[in-house]
Amino acid sequence: MLFVNHDIHVHTMLSACVEDAAAIPTNYIQQAATLGLKTIGFADHVWDRNMPGASPWYQPQDMEHILSIRDQLPNDTLGIKVLIGCESEYWGDGRIGISRAAAEQLDFVLLPMSHAHMTSFAVPGVVTSLADLSQLLVKRFHEVIDLRIATGIAHPFFPIGYIEHVDEIIAGISDTQFIDCFGRAAEAGVSIEIQPSYFPSLHGKPQEGFHDETFFRVLSLAKRCGCYFHFGSDAHSLAALNSLTVLDQVIEQIGINRDDIPPWLR
Ligand SMILES: [Zn+2]
Ligand SMILES: [Zn+2]
Known about the structure:
By secondary structure, the protein is an alpha/beta fold.
């Protein structure tokens, strides 16, 4: 049996950033069966209409929109457990894209705290250097755990939009700070996501300023704190689901075992 036997961060055509017409549940489920996955979790982007502050991009992607996925599910899921969750949003200062009531309609909620590519991520002037961004990520991580809404954190500390500076941004966060963050996550039972994109070489996409060692450090510290981990390809196309297979060697290197996976995903 594969160790990485679930993928709970999968986007379908219901996410506005997905352009692959093949990225629909039936095809993903088929591909999950081919890959030998036990569980697939759909996590389309959502901003609940009852929560203030949605950007124009988020506005059409409300709960009703993402829950329409239920009408797209095939009757036969080929033995794969299918979960309906979401990737909502956290922009700090109380700006969260999902209410507790809405979260209860879903199997799981992934909250990101590092969508630094979005203009609403930080008020102008807050991030003037990479060091500012490092410290803002630490602050946001603590806040997102305190919200007690997330089942898991989507790509924690992965600064989207700053791919060429990942090493420097992560190096700007001390071991003590990570241990403080991950200790809180472990206590709250909130899982830490592992994505293939953290490992540019393994993923076959080497980058200047971003090396595999950086997230090995982050995840090793999370492991040391006793965090749960979940896996997510963050697929925005059907083919991207296959990327999950590179994670087996990561798991071994960090020493993650079955007890480190949340019980509902074992
Ligand atoms: Zn994301
Ligand atoms: Zn995503």
